Automatic annotation (TrEMBL):
Record organism: Gordonia neofelifaecis NRRL B-59395
Alpha/beta hydrolase fold-3 domain mapped to chain residues: 68-182
Protein name per its UniProtKB record: Lipase/esterase
Alphabetized InterPro entries for the sequence: AB_hydrolase_3, AB_hydrolase_fold, GDXG_lipolytic_enzyme
GO MF annotation list: hydrolase activity
Keyword Hydrolase part of the UniProt annotation: yes
Assigned keywords, A-Z: Hydrolase
Amino acid sequence: MRPDIAEAYDARATVSGTTFDAVMAAYRRRSDTAVARLAGTTGIVYDRPSGQRLDIWGLGDEPRPVFFVVHGGYWRMLSRADTAFMADVLAARGIATVTVDYGLAPATPVPEMVRQVRSALAWVWQHGREHGLDTDRIVVGGSSAGAHLAATTMVPGWQNAAGIPETAVRGGLLLSGLYDLRPLVHAPANEWLHLTGETAHSVSPALSAPPTTPTVIARAEHEASGFARQSADLHRHWSGVADSRLLTVPRRNHFDVFLDLAEPASELFRSLLDLVQASALAETTRRRGAGR
């Protein structure tokens, strides 16, 4: 372990134990409240080999655009049940929320997590119409480990084998994530991630070709330095190919910034709405091109 890397990637050390516990409790409490009165379908097995499941919240009379959101937890904790706190405010604006589980470390290796989350995205694109989703308007997102896993659904190169187009994802909101996992080989997190240099490289979206879809890459004002730096690095890498915006959210830490997605007045929430709106324009342009 390298002490400099350990410090740079220790998100937990940026807040007190009391703050951490309060935010973790808020994820579940606010998620339970948000979905209590929402129409939805829960417990759908999206991947037969792993048995992992997803929930769909906020359905309406017509197919709705999708926010496909992946939970964080440093790849070893939390679940889809902790990640639906934005579902009611999105539903009020005609947007469905899909929350996703994946196997956790140390039992599940990171490459398998990537496979599972990509499988979930493919399932939504292939079967979402049957469940009230507009599969031409999928925006992905996540926080921390969830941002990393969401980013792996955006990069090209895997979709053809999964039977979906490279344009299946129309936008991404990546929040407080890590996108080059090679430093974690030398960090305490590798006690449960068991990464090697080779596997870390293979699951790092920052080392892949950039996507062509618009992305908001966000970070909290109070982040560990490694997280802040990797957001800036990914923005530089991706902005040369597509519309990429780097956003720093003031007065927020690595954990509570995620909750801004449940606050309609927040810049983060408005950024998500902008991505959903952009997905409508992208689909209109695609259909016009197909008509020619």
